[in-house]
């Protein structure tokens, strides 16, 4: 049947309305992209480092396993997370005749069969306060977790954050955690991100080359900043990701260097001083709040948050 001119106009209008409704329905049905990661305020990360320094100063100058400074550090981090709405768990273990502690924090929601986990070791050596090693990683992971809370972020995957004890004695806390997981629970961790020394005073920008997807996520972030990266080799197998990797869990992470000396070629890439260690205060009493490069700490803290957001969508 042919339509008259008014009929054709009415029909066209009806089809236009139907098209709009269909488009709207498709848009409503399509999942919205998760919001971009927030900038992590450097001042907040440094405030945590100041607190860790104060804790060490008040407890014999360190935050080592089995010492009062470690437990006070754990209590500080836990209080921040509890106030922010995380579900926190303290896991106890024994090493060298002393009780050690891991702190695990879960953000409510997300698919618990797909867990994106970020961690750092909270203990120092007995020689000093351990502000770069590893207050830097611990403070950045804490502030990223608090950013999740401030944003009330609800990703597809489940988010878990961890602070490990007795890393300086051979990754004891993280090993205990991984060994305590059932095979099924290990399989639920889709990625573990490790942050150990991310504010070295003569910094490099090193990315773990373990899991390709995690590695690419970090490299993409630094490429966006115009910052060259290198593959991390100095600490390979010497931090808490090692036991996750051995258990078949995908791992990745960031590092700014320890006792290895920066080369002239690396100075061309990153600035700093050639022939000098990335961290001259590595495992020493001078690893205090003055032993931090703000630019490196800021970039790596933001890279951490970027990875958490990207990998948990």
TrEMBL record:
Keyword Signal: yes
GO terms (BP aspect): proteolysis
Matches recorded under InterPro entries: M28_fam, M28_SGAP-like, Peptidase_M28
One Pfam family in the UniProt entry: Peptidase_M28
Subunit structure, interactors included: Monomer.
Protein family according to the UniProt entry: Belongs to the peptidase M28 family. M28A subfamily.
Secretion signal span: 1-29
Protein name, per record: Peptidase M28
Keyword Signal (UniProt): yes
Gene Ontology molecular function terms on file: aminopeptidase activity; metal ion binding; metalloexopeptidase activity
Organism of derivation: Streptomyces dioscori
CDD domains, alphabetized: M28_SGAP_like (cd03876)
